[in-house]
Amino acid sequence: EPAAPGAAGKEVEDGCSVFHLSSKDFVRCPSDKVETWVSSKAGVPIKKCFKVKQRGYAFVTVATEDAEAFRAALEGASFRNGPVTVKAGHDRDPNSNWRKKSRRDGEGEEP
Questions:
Q1: Cα–Cα–Cα angle for 56, 58, 63, nearest 5°?
Q2: pLDDT(105) > 90
Q3: Of the candidates 29, 31, 20, the residue with the CA atom closest to the CA atom of residue 70
Q4: What is the Cα 83 distance to its own chain's centre?
C-alpha cells in the first residue's frame, strides 16, 4: 500500500529519505548535539544530519524503509522545551531568495 504523500520524506537517489526537522530550541545548538538527540529518539539508523548552528532546523537523511518509523518517533517529540516538527525535506528553489524578491518588488528600498 503506498504511503501518504510527504509521509516518507523526500526520496533521494540512493534509497534514502530526507526530512526537515524544526524546533525553536535547535537555534544556536551545535549540530552534534542535535544529531545525538535525533539518533537517540529515532530508533532507526541516521545516514546524515545537516544543521547550521544559528538556525532552528536540521535536515536528516534515513533509509527509505525506516522513514515512517523515523517520522512517527520524532513527530511531536520535545527537544529541551520546544516541540519538534517533522516535514518532508525538499530542494531549495533557486528563484525564491526573499532578499532578491523584496528588492525587485521595491519593498526593500528606501523612499
A1: 160
A2: no
A3: 20
A4: 13
